[in-house]
Amino acid sequence: MIDPVSLRVLLAVHDTGSVTRAARLLGYSAPNLTQHLRKLERALKAPMVVRAGRGVVLTPEALAVLEPARAIVEGLEALPLLARQEAEPSGTFRIAAFPTSLRGIVLPAMAVARERYPRLEIVPTEIEPGPGLDLLRNGRLDVVLSKALGPIDHTGRDPDHLRIRIGLDPLDAVVPAQHPLARRDTISLPDLARERLALTPNEDLYGPWIASHSPDLLGAVERAYEAVELASLVRFVELGLAVTVLPRMGRPHLSESVVAVPLADDDAFRTIEVLVRPIAARARTVTAVVELLRDALTGE
């Protein structure tokens, strides 16, 4: 008989590209993971992996069963949710949240859920969407919160998950209170071309996104100060060293020494989505949590 855990191991090896990374993802030891692969080979009477250099690759036989195996694993993992589809939301619900979404919407949603759904426990993990998707595919999370600057083009969507938009998170320019721009009702990004900026590192895409609005912004982005924490970016502004661009959701408290001015650019927002496996998207617990997150984002 085929062990579903062995199928999950095969999927993890494929998705991570490594036995070591797959073991880390699933919380197994490498020898234990190898035992599951050998067990699957005996059940299917075919080799699943072969050595390639210092690692392994899936055999043609393994690749042939990969998608049916994924469907089986996802179906089994979704059974508890589907069984509760029409019941009151309950059980443990695991959600991946990037930092500002954890502060801005997940924790407030958890507080509401504690009163509204006493049998439901939301367990958050603070993690960026990319690594979160790996955990979602391997059944270690129920949903992942995702973000994108501006509107999202869903051309070439990943069939492994469904995207549910929960709302938009506006962006503001944050400037010193005595700065001439602080008296504006709105600011456009090209207005910042001559300013010293403080931004999160380029892998967070704020720099390239800002620069895309005008060639004049390229120099400002290239010489921008960098800081990972939003509180550090605000501190640059408080001390008059720079101006910055911040989302409203989950950002630090702003002192009286700085002013947040709305950006007037048409795409000056983050699109916030929930990513969920299609088979579980209509489960009552999933729809209830999505509603809680949407209400937290809109302030309702």
From TrEMBL:
<dbReference type="InterPro" id="IPR036390">
    <property type="entry name" value="WH_DNA-bd_sf"/>
</dbReference>
<dbReference type="InterPro" id="IPR036388">
    <property type="entry name" value="WH-like_DNA-bd_sf"/>
</dbReference>
<dbReference type="Pfam" id="PF03466">
    <property type="entry name" value="LysR_substrate"/>
</dbReference>
<feature type="domain" description="HTH lysR-type">
    <location>
        <begin position="2"/>
        <end position="59"/>
    </location>
</feature>
<dbReference type="GO" id="GO:0003677">
    <property type="term" value="F:DNA binding"/>
</dbReference>
<dbReference type="GO" id="GO:0003700">
    <property type="term" value="F:DNA-binding transcription factor activity"/>
</dbReference>
<dbReference type="InterPro" id="IPR005119">
    <property type="entry name" value="LysR_subst-bd"/>
</dbReference>
<dbReference type="GO" id="GO:0032993">
    <property type="term" value="C:protein-DNA complex"/>
</dbReference>
<protein>
    <submittedName>
        <fullName>LysR family transcriptional regulator</fullName>
    </submittedName>
</protein>
<comment type="similarity">
    <text>Belongs to the LysR transcriptional regulatory family.</text>
</comment>
<dbReference type="InterPro" id="IPR000847">
    <property type="entry name" value="LysR_HTH_N"/>
</dbReference>
<keyword id="KW-0804">Transcription</keyword>
<keyword id="KW-0805">Transcription regulation</keyword>
<keyword id="KW-0238">DNA-binding</keyword>
<dbReference type="Pfam" id="PF00126">
    <property type="entry name" value="HTH_1"/>
</dbReference>
